[in-house]
Amino acid sequence: MAGPELEPLAKKVGTQIEPERPRLGFGKADRLRASSEFTRVQRRGVRVQSAHFVLYGLPGVRDGTIRLGITVSRRIGNAVVRNRVKRRVRECFRLRLRGMLPAGATMAAIALSGAGQLKSPTINAELEAATLILGKKLRGRQ
After folding, report:
1. Given Cys at both, which of 31, 77, 82, 95 links 116, Cβ 3.0 to 4.6 Å?
2. Does residue 67 form part of some domain?
3. What gap in Å lies between CA 23 and CA 136, rounded to an integer?
4. Looking at the domain assignment, is residue 105 inside a domain?
5. Within-domain flag for 96
6. What's the structural domain count of the chain?
7. pLDDT tens by residue, the chain, 142 residues
8. Are the C-beta atoms of 109 and 53 separated by less than 8 Å?
9. Is the pTM of this model over 0.85?
10. Cα–Cα distance between 111 and 75 in angstroms, integer?
């Protein structure tokens, strides 16, 4: 069993100690909610565009939480299609994109026309490529 100095970095499971898992949730603290937050990211941040998404990023000074805001307008499709796009973008961010951005960064994703017809793997690939470029630009601004 590990010494007490390792216990803050791990949690006990029975008699074994497991290392902490990376945070994979997407709660309120991880979201952009106010219109002013979206506007600030769009006006002061860097911009990267892919075929179906525009990403804006802003390096942050918050508590290190990487935040995401998603905008999907009505021209993308009906409510079912818009919510599906938002769910897929959130899932991609939660599992893959969060690790590609510097700590404390804020990202806003805007879906362009045609995004509603994309399948999850296509959305993931497109967002990963754009986020990789965005992450490099944000690291250059810090």
Report:
1. 77
2. yes
3. 22
4. yes
5. yes
6. 1
7. 455 554 555 555 556 666 655 667 778 888 999 999 999 999 999 999 999 999 999 998 667 889 999 999 999 999 999 999 999 999 999 999 999 999 999 999 999 999 999 999 999 999 999 999 999 999 987 6
8. yes
9. no
10. 10
